[in-house]
Amino acid sequence: MFKSLITSILAFSFLAPAFAAEEVNVYSARKEKLIKPLLEEFTKESGIKVNLLTGKADALLKKLELEGENTPADVLITTDAGRLYRAKTAGVLQAIESETLIEQIPENLRDPENEWFGLTYRARPIFYVKGKVKPEELSSYEALTDEKWKGRICIRSSNNIYNQSLLASMIAASGEEQAGEWAKSFVKNFARPPKGGDRDQIKAAASGQCDIAIANSYYYAAMLNGKDEAQKAAANKLAIFWPNQAEGDRGAHVNVSGGAVTKHAKHKENAIKLLEYMTTKASQTWYAEKNGEYPVTAETKPSELIQGWGGFKADSLNLSALGENNAEALKLMDKAGWK
Amino acid sequence: MLISMAFLVSLPILAVFGYLFVPATEVWGHLAETVLSDYLSNSFWLMLGVGFGVLLIGVPVAWLNSMCDYPGRRFFEWALLLPLAMPAYIIAYTYTGMLDFSGPVQTLLRELTGWGYGDYFFPEIRSLPGAIVMLSLVLFPYVYLLARAAFLEQSICVLEVSRTLGANAWQSFIKVALPLARPAIITGLSLALMETLADFGTVQYFGVSTFTTGIFRTWFGLGNSAAAAQLAAMLMSFVFILIMIERWSRRKARYHHTSSKYSAIPKYQLKGKWAVLAVISCAVPLILGFIIPVAQLLYWAITVGEQSFDQDFMVLIGHSLLLASLAAFFALGLALLLGYGKRVDSHPSVSIAARIAAMGYAVPGTVIAIGVLIPFAWLDTQLNSWLKNFTGESWGLMFSGTLFTLLFAYNVRFLSVSLQTVESGLGKIKPTLDNAGRSLGLNAFGVLRQLHLPLMKGTLLTALLLVFVDVLKELPATLILRPFNFNTLAVKAYELAADERLADAGLPSLMIVLVGIIPVILLSKTIGRSRVGQQGSLDKESA
After folding, report:
1. Where does the secretion signal sit in this chain (chain A) (predicted)?
2. Domains in chain B, number
3. Which of A4, A51, A153, B461 could be bridged to B526 by S-S, CB 3.0 to 4.6 A?
């Protein structure tokens, strides 16, 4: 018993990631369900084996830092731009030259120094309860601080990166002081202390706890597309409103899921191939259909459901700013009492 | 040898303490001004609440099930351990699904009455009290388990003596049995509280800012690892002080049995309304802590979940079982070494190192995982440059990214569970027995093997199975330290839940619970048998 135990431990502990020639190792903050099928396709087409480790972005980043030049990871995938910026500042990424990526991905959705690339994007619009709110009453994120919204807004905790990024984009747009003032007045209009995820905000609005919810676009799409009838019914009670669309205004807040090649990648060529593969029409369509995200490449259209929401002007801010302003945004949220 | 073992395990924790010397004044100013008081008060009330909760549920049912007989006792004896298999964040998800404002219960209520939001009062599940209830429901089995084992192991003689001295059943419980079981109850309580402090999933989901959520916010959101580590160090110091206060309050008191006369506890037969009351008080925590959440998971898995049970699931189960059993044996071995080492060699440094190592249970898994990575990554770098000198090529990571690192992290995280259990087991064995063994020519190892281990069979199994179930549920360290392409049930459940696909998470969560049930049942059977004087292998020693 004991002997076999020890042998198996030894066997496992030396199953260190082997370095075969045609391989690429991926640290991914995207969950397995939303990346593995794509990676399997990639392997089929290119013959390159993909080893996948999923996890939380912050922890994966810390791991990359600690592993230093011995890291087995070649590619880092995250679901927001802020973390990619953090990875870049931590010095664990490298600039890559890829015509394919640079030509296809809009400039504001990638790093100016080509260290990371947005692979899909998602918007964070305003959702309102049909019948209770008229779309004419809405205009911008800024206008949500108006007295008339007192006790009518649902949004999740400021622990969430998407809210941190939203405020970071407002710091970039109008400066720290104004963003701080906005956060203070905005929090006063909350219908309840923040809790739950994005879907919960939509559900809460649908059941009458508030009239306005802020959530990422793909959650709304997933609720409409899912098998859960209750969630579908809830989502159907709300409609989408694209904020900040006025002439001269900056547009709705967007964020990306993105990828990067690590500084000490042992399979750099394969890593670039993988990132390029993720911008092919097949991959872009897969994310659009499977998870209701917006493709970054011009040749691919969003899913039919999402096209039905109509086009919108997206904030053209370079997403690096979300990372740069993240810590400041968090402090402003602390000061505003945004839990 | 002993010191170096204990030191090795406490290394990740010391790595965190190392950050105490990195200045982070600016961030501390900000924290103190804004959120620190929230972290402090929420963590404090959470601990106090869960502490009361687990004692209130755990001790009475332990007493009922060791001293009394009532219809259904044999079932409740083991069934009350089942909530242990339920990860706290999963129970939180299920109750939110049911009791939230937009959930079926409140919706039905509104449909029946025509009320709207704000027209009626309904307790808010996602709140501090809600978190207290959730955590109490899944953590009370620690107290129940250890308290029951202690009650069962008490010599009936002391109870009989108290009765002959004129105490009634109630008085002998309060004045004799309860104080005698105190170390075990405190052990259970401290395990529950440490797990409460380390909890991230539940409080995060409920929007309650505690020390744990604060650590992550500071670390990643503010990007200040020094301040985050200092928060973590504060948390650990807090635990350390609590443990020290408890030890001090016990001072010289000893809890081993002075009599070697054991006889089976004559179970007090409950009848009529008392029997009904007993059944209710056992059934309520079982229903709330296990049956309702399992029913909800089952409902999700069957009706709305899009996750099907396939080949991949067998692999996940295999991985979970492998990790849990390996980690359980490791942790038990280490706990025996440290626990017995302290008994044989009372050098204070052994005791302190063991204490530090055992604090891991109160530390969020992610912090432990990073703490483990720091020394291992360093070791890998050294090893690599050394090997490069010889072979001229890079070897990559030897330790980090292997199961070895992960198992090590589990040990750091769960040593407290096995160590405390083993220590309370050893504490009940009279030191005179050691002396007798030694004088008959056994060496220290012989005493352990031939005297203690057979006497502590129940305790050892308890330690083994507790770690097993804990590892099964463990998420953060597994997530960071597992090798490529290696998933477990907990990882699967988390990934689906984190994507807000709660219904899909139903199936893997259910599997965690089911896999966890087997050892839980085994555990209960063993404890029932382990009572000296009961049938089984120990008859000879006690006869």
Report:
1. 1-20
2. 1
3. B461
Answering whether pTM is above 0.90, one says no
Cβ distance A319 to A108 under 8 Å? yes
Q: Enter the tokens of residue B93.
A: 């998800």
Rg (CA), chain A: 21
pLDDT in tens, B79-96: 998 998 898 989 998 998
How long is chain B? 543
Residue B500 has a CB neighbour count (10 Å cut-off) of 20
Report if residue B26 sits inside a domain. Answer: no
Instruction: Kindly state whether B366 is in contact with chain A, defined as any CB-CB distance less than 8 angstroms.
Output: yes
Q: Touching check for A15 and chain B: CB below 8 Å?
A: yes
Determine, for residues B221 and A339 on separate chains, whether the beta-carbon distance falls below 8 Å.
Answer: no
Of A51, A54, A334, the CB nearest to B34: A334
List, in sequence order, every residue forming a beta bridge with A256; answer none if it has no partner: A121
Q: Give per-residue pLDDT as tens, B189-208.
A: 988 998 898 888 889 888 89
Per DSSP bridges, beta strands A153-154 and A212-214 are: parallel
* Tokens coding A40: 């399997």
**Which residues on adjacent β-strands are paired with residue A24?**
A50
CA distance B268 to B355: 40
Contact between chains at B407 and A15 (C-beta distance less than 8 A): no
Q: Is A219 annotated as a binding residue?
A: yes
The rounded Cα B37 to chain-centroid distance in angstroms is 27
CATH number of the domain enclosing B456: 1.10.3720.10
List of residues 6+ apart from A79 with CB closer than 8 A: A29, A30, A57, A257
**Nearest C-alpha neighbor of A339 from the set B419, B213, B57:** B213
Superfamily of domain A2-121+255-300: Periplasmic binding protein-like II (3.40.190.10)
- Rounded Cα distance between B291 and B425, Å, is 32
Q: ipTM value, please give it.
A: 0.82
Residue B541 domain-assigned (yes or no): no
Are B175 and B4 in contact by the 8 Å Cβ rule? The answer is no
Determine, for residues B102 and A194 on separate chains, whether the beta-carbon distance falls below 8 Å. Answer: no
Domain holding B505, by residue range, is 2-7+31-253+271-302+311-531
